[in-house]
Amino acid sequence: MAMNYLEIIGTIIGLLYLWLEYRASIYLWIAGIIMPAIYIFVYYKAGLYADFGINIYYLLAAVYGWIIWKYGSKKQEKTELPITRIPLKYLPPLTAVFIIALLGIVWILINFTDSTVPWLDSFTTALSIVGMWMLARKYVEQWWAWILVDIVCCGLYIYKELYFTSGLYGLYSIIAIFGYLKWKKMMHGQSSPTEPC
Known about the structure:
It is found in: Cell membrane. It holds the Pfam family NMN_transporter. It is a multi-pass membrane protein. The chain is about 75% helix and about 0% strand. By secondary structure, the protein is mainly α. Helix 1 (about 1-20) runs antiparallel to helix 2 (about 30-45), helix 3 runs parallel beside helix 5 (about 120-135) and helix 6 packs antiparallel against helix 7. It is globular and about 50 Å long.
């Protein structure tokens, strides 16, 4: 029963996080620290060990994201990081990180845990690693990663009977599409130039 309450609280904080991310508000990182702290317990209890592990990464990434968004990519400028497109040169290394993370996590889950969904759990975790880094750098394409993660997670959490969390990720899937469109509009409305695609 306690896990149900934690899941509900995590869902509420997740909705706040999503709203702040949609608005490209730097305060999303505060929710981004609290939410994974809660879900560490929820996912461990559900046997979603890769999701459990990714939430430790989320905690660290939230601190990194706050610093990058607050001070921009160049510390001497002390300006908030603008929304930009991801440079094409980053796509090959990000793809490599995704594949290595996916295979590594699958191997760990199959050999060292009782996970019943090692491939799906690993897929969403590996893609989340890439998506979180893209979010921290404020790349508009980060929404593409989250749309895919959210759709897969929605089905996975139904299977694991985490219905509140599944509902949250179903909502994420829809709002992520609107988030991408909003960020594109905000990016074009910025006074500072965007990075080349």
